[in-house]
Design goal:
mainly alpha
Length: 112
């Protein structure tokens, strides 16, 4: 619960909002419209391609890269190298991980 509160603290106004804001952390399956994955002027085909690319990249990483600071650094570097707009990749990642359009960012630069 402490990590959930820390994760949501920027959007949290009262503690009784935690169950609604952080429900995705305690749910095994997420149900959301597929259209929520699409970032601004992107489209479903591009979004699918970017998510598949990101999934392949994450699957290729050694476990030692799954620490917050290393993962964030490497994903941002990858996006720059591939000239992919961050929003086109990180927005679908956010929605896929949380099932929500309003959620904490998928890459967080703060310590809990």
């Amino acid at each position: 619960m402490e990590a959930a509160v820390a994760l949501e603290r920027d959007r949290l106004k009262r503690l009784d909002e935690i169950p609604q804001l952080a429900a995705f952390l305690f749910t095994e399956t997420l149900d959301y419209p597929a259209g929520d994955l699409v970032w601004k002027k992107s489209d479903a085909e591009n979004t699918k391609k970017n998510l598949e690319f990101l999934l392949e990249y994450l699957a290729s990483l050694d476990k030692k890269y799954f620490f917050k600071d290393k993962l964030e650094k490497n994903i941002k570097k990858l996006l720059e190298e591939k000239k992919l707009p961050a929003g086109d990749v990180l927005w679908p990642m956010r929605v896929a991980l949380s099932g929500l359009r309003a959620s904490p960012p998928p890459l967080i630069s703060r310590k809990f």
